[in-house]
Write a structure and sequence with these properties.
elongated; 74 residues; mainly alpha
């Protein structure tokens, strides 16, 4: 078993990884704003407004649940 020494130039190099997920963030952001407009505009009380705020944050979960429920129907 041999051990190789890493040259000093390679030691100093850093791996730069850039993730470009701007489109998915934009879709979620627009959906978040749209859900807040929908839920908060229909709120009659402060409690319904708070509930609408949290529903707006978790709108993808409601969407997936409704889709799976729709697909499960026979």
């Amino acid at each position: 078993m041999t051990t190789e020494l890493i040259p000093k130039e390679q030691e100093d190099q850093k791996l730069n990884v850039n993730y470009h997920s701007g489109s998915s963030e934009a879709v979620y952001g627009l959906g978040l704003i749209g859900a807040w407009v929908y839920y908060l505009s229909r709120a009659k009380t402060f409690q319904q407004g708070v509930l609408g705020f949290f529903k707006g944050i978790f709108w993808p979960a409601f969407l997936v649940y409704a889709l799976l429920e729709f697909l499960d129907k026979e």
